[in-house]
Design a protein that fits this description.
By secondary structure, the chain is of the alpha/beta class. It has twelve helices and five strands. The protein has a five-stranded parallel sheet with strand order 2-3-4-1-5, with helices on both faces. Helix 3 runs parallel beside helix 4, helix 5 runs parallel beside helix 6 and helix 9 packs across helix 12. About 5% of the residues have low confidence.
């Protein structure tokens, strides 16, 4: 945006100087204290050993996910893409030219936010996102309160996530009340500006929309540009009683440092969840497992 060019440059320098002050004490002397490093701008490159360590850690987290098969399939697709990028890193084509923006849907507690955070870690570990910038917002936060307020908010959100990830939860809040409706003037301005920004920065960040399936399906129909800018989508199903039991056993140890008694075998716990709490699964999912342990 030429109109904000000087302001944007000043903002970047202010952030970089703030990061430098955190890195170097005020009384520090020497050339290192007078230099703005790539890390001050959020562009620090990871060493090979750091990337190896981060990859191992994030792969372990993905492996530990209970259920979430569609998410794991998406990670496998991205893993193959990362391998292709590495194989073509010395060529002009291929590296960083892919749009990984996606829409993830599901009921409460199925792991939509967990997926977005894991995807960010994954893309960082595989060198597909250069900046340590994860910006998480609710769809309503992108809407302004008066005319001319929305577009700058959307632009600031996108640009604060450049080089990293922008995660918009409950993205359907930008749509209307019914399927395919465009919403109020602020919603329309937010969607229009967001689409322009995503096109202008198509391969400079990863954007993830999340929300309930029916509402997101309706929202994605409110503008034909949305499916083009976010070409990948998948749905995370509700957990089964068996999966909830596994979550309960893990949570009891990891969070509360207690163990579920051996006489409470999986079959007994599954039957209890199905008969007594089956109607609650779609409203809570993983939160139900945590609540039962508590």
């Amino acid at each position: 945006d030429p109109a904000r060019g000087a302001y944007a440059a000043n903002d970047l320098l202010t952030i970089a100087l703030s990061n430098r002050h955190m890195r170097c004490p005020l009384e520090a002397t020497g050339s290192h204290a007078r230099v703005l490093t790539p890390g001050d701008f959020g562009l620090a490159e990871l060493s090979r050993s750091e990337m190896t360590r981060m990859r191992a850690a994030v792969e372990q987290e993905i492996e530990a996910l209970e259920g979430c098969e569609p998410a794991k399939e998406f990670f496998e697709m991205v893993r193959q893409r990362a391998a292709f990028d590495e194989a073509t890193k010395d060529k002009k084509k291929g590296r960083g030219a892919v749009n990984l923006n996606c829409v993830v849907t599901g009921n409460p507690g199925v792991g939509k936010t967990t997926f977005a955070r894991l995807l960010f870690k994954f893309l960082r570990a595989y060198g597909m996102l250069p900046c340590d910038a994860f910006v998480e917002m609710n769809g309503l936060e992108l809407k302004g309160k008066y005319c001319g307020h929305t577009a700058p908010k959307v632009k600031d959100a996108v640009r604060s996530a450049l080089g990293g990830m922008l995660f918009i939860d409950e993205a359907y809040a930008l749509g209307g009340d019914g399927p395919g409706e465009k919403g109020d003037v602020f919603s329309r301005e937010a969607v229009r500006t967001l689409l322009t920004e995503l096109e202008n920065h198509r391969t400079q960040l990863c954007v993830v929309f999340a929300g309930y399936r029916d509402k997101m399906n309706g929202f994605m129909r409110c503008d034909p540009g949305l499916p083009r800018r976010l070409p990948q989508s998948f749905h995370l199903p509700d957990y089964t009683p068996r999966q909830l039991v596994k979550i309960m056993r893990r949570v009891s140890v990891d969070r509360f440092d207690v163990k579920i008694a051996d006489e409470l075998d999986d079959a007994r716990l599954e039957e209890h969840i199905a008969s007594e709490h089956g109607h609650e699964i779609s409203q809570h999912n993983a939160a139900l497992a945590i609540n039962l342990v508590e």
